[in-house]
Structure formats: C-alpha cells, structure tokens
Amino acid sequence: MIPGFDLSSFAATAGPLAAILIVALIVFAESGLLIGFFLPGDSVLFTVGFLIQGGVHLHFNIIAAIIIFFIAAVLGDSVGYAFGYKLGPKIFKRPNSFLFHQENIERAETFFKKYGAKTIILARFIPVVRTFTPIVAGVGSMTYKTFITFNLIGAALWAMGVTLLGYFLGSVLEKMGIKIDDVLLPIIAIILIVSVAPALYHLLKDQKQRHAIWLGTKRQFSLLFRRRK
Fold this sequence. Notes:
Layout: H1 7-14, H2 16-32, H3 41-54, H4 62-87, H5 102-115, H6 119-122, H7 129-139, H8 144-175, H9 180-204, H10 207-228
Helix pairs in contact: 1-2, 2-3, 2-4, 2-7, 3-8, 3-9, 4-7, 4-8, 5-7
C-alpha cells in the first residue's frame, strides 16, 4: 500500500465503499496522469483482493470491486491518451520537473517502438511505463479505436487480474488454516517493496534529481528544528 495509509483501518472508519473508491482513484491516477507515476497500483489492487477475501478487514463484493477498478483503469489510460493527443510532439520538448521527466517519456516510447500496439497491454504490468505509455500512444499515430481495444484488454488483465490474484491467495491461505491477520503485514510489505522499488530507482538514479531531493529534505529538516528552537 501507500506508506502511512492503512486501507484496513480506513475501511473500518470511512466504510468499505470509500476504501474501494480511494483505490479506484489511485488506479485512475497511475494509469494516465503525470502525478500518478509513483503510485503503487499493483500493491493496492492485490491488497484489496486479499482483504476482501478475509471479509473482516474489507467487506465488499469482489465482482463489484474488480468492475470499479477496471473502469478506473480504462478511464485513466483514456485521459493519458487524450493528454498526449492534445499536446502532440510538444510533450517531447517539455522541460523536466519533479513530476515530469523526459526520460520517462523516452522509456515509454522505446517500449512502444519495440512492442507496438501490444505495449498498451504489456505496460500495464510495468511501473512508470504504464503511466506514460498512453500519453505516447496519444502523441503517435495510433488511432483511438485501436488504443481503446488494447486498453480494455490491458485493464482487464491488470486491474481485475491482480485484484483476483490477491483474492485467491487469501482463499488458499484460508484453506491451509493460515489466518490473514498473521501474514497480512509481511505480504503487504513485500508487495510494496516490489511495486515501489522500480519507481524509486527510476527517480533516484539521476544525480541531479537525487541532489534536488537531498537539498529539499535538508531544508525541511532545517525548518523543522528551527521552529522547535
């Protein structure tokens, strides 16, 4: 999940529907908004399926959940496509910022040239690339008809598939007599590391980016201790 955000506790206080909608928003943002490239969509989908299987942590219909996530993923990618289509080639000249880096676009473009239209499906399972691929598709010559066809397939395999994977794993553990409470935190930790690691690596491997983050962190700590004095 997202560091500092406990989906189980949130569902207990705000209600299961609110928790599902929050996850849908995360899926939507990561699927095609520039600000969503760092969000761990894989981990939230898997965790939701896992928690729904337990019933106690998140009492919600699994079929309804995967339909909501499917719609969010399709809409997110469509927004990304529209963004790329509107900006066109200008996006390749856009200056780097904290939320936008040309290397992300170039990485998605390279992936797109290698796999063609199948990229829309394959990119769903690759952090960062899945955020920028629909944007590159919109910039290129891919028609929306072709894009939406592969978008629907990719969204079904990813949003619905990953959620169901968590759900069925929970079912297997339950049959083995293993309580979800006993393994929930370790499993979430593993999924979080696997989901966030590629994005963090991509963010921190650039020396200028590391330097900017370090300076920003030092400045915040300096202000924090200054206020305490």
